[in-house]
Structures are given as structure tokens and as C-alpha cells.
Design goal:
By secondary structure, the protein is mostly helical. The protein contains four helices and no strands. The N and C termini lie far apart (about 85 Å).
């Protein structure tokens, strides 16, 4: 293993940063597709596999069999990921709480609470008739 030159370090920094941006862009696109999909779990699985494959493939390609470059790429990736999550997480959490995702066999929370109330009303009517 040889020492990293200045150009090796710069390339590794850029590749790690760009990989993180690509990773989160694909994740963002996936979340948009999942909300409209009939099979959200399958899309999440294949999207995760594709993102991990691209991350590892591109990192290995740019590392050029140099473990120091590979380590630097992943360190920059993780640092960028940490920074992006600190910036994006509060706004994403607010948006996610606004929209309620309903899966095929689930009922929205509002509907569930409404059904519970109607069951209680039916039970009261039955007990009142007796």
C-alpha cells in the first residue's frame, strides 16, 4: 500500500461526496414511487439492493485497489450522509407526518378510530335494548 497523493485525496473526497448525493437522490425518488405503488415492499427491496450495489461498485472502481482510497471514500460518504441527515431530517419528518401512507390491507388511522367509535355505539345500542 502506497501513500496517498494530493490528487488521490481530492478524487476520493469528490467521489465520496458524489456517491452520497446519488444515494440520497435515488432514495428520494424511491420514496416518491413507493407512495404510488401497488407493491411497496418489492420496490424498497430492489431500490436498496441497487443503491448498495452502485455504492460498492463505484467506490471499488475509483479506489483502484487502494484500501486507503476506499476507506477515505467511505469516510467522506458517511460524513456527508451524517450532515445531510442533520439538514434534511427535520423537514422530511414534517412532510412524512403530513401524508399518511395507506397499504392495501391497512386502514388509515382516522378510519380506524371511526370504526372503533361505531363499534362502541353499536354496543351501547345493544345494551340499551336489553
Amino acid at each position: 500500500m502506497h501513500l496517498l497523493t494530493g490528487s488521490d485525496i481530492v478524487i476520493s473526497l469528490i467521489v465520496g461526496f458524489v456517491l452520497c448525493l446519488i444515494y440520497f437522490y435515488l432514495l428520494w425518488r424511491t420514496m416518491g414511487i413507493v407512495q404510488k405503488s401497488a407493491h411497496p415492499m418489492m420496490i424498497l427491496f430492489f431500490s436498496g439492493a441497487l443503491r448498495i450495489f452502485l455504492l460498492i461498485f463505484i467506490a471499488l472502481l475509483f479506489a483502484e485497489q487502494n484500501m486507503a482510497r476506499l476507506l477515505l471514500i467511505f469516510c467522506v460518504f458517511m460524513l456527508t450522509r451524517f450532515i445531510l441527515l442533520k439538514i434534511v431530517k427535520p423537514t422530511f419528518k414534517k412532510e412524512f407526518e403530513k401524508s399518511e401512507i395507506v397499504y392495501h390491507n391497512e386502514k388509515p388511522k382516522a378510519l380506524k378510530s371511526g370504526l372503533k367509535k361505531t363499534e362502541k355505539v353499536k354496543m351501547r345500542k345493544k345494551s340499551a335494548k336489553k
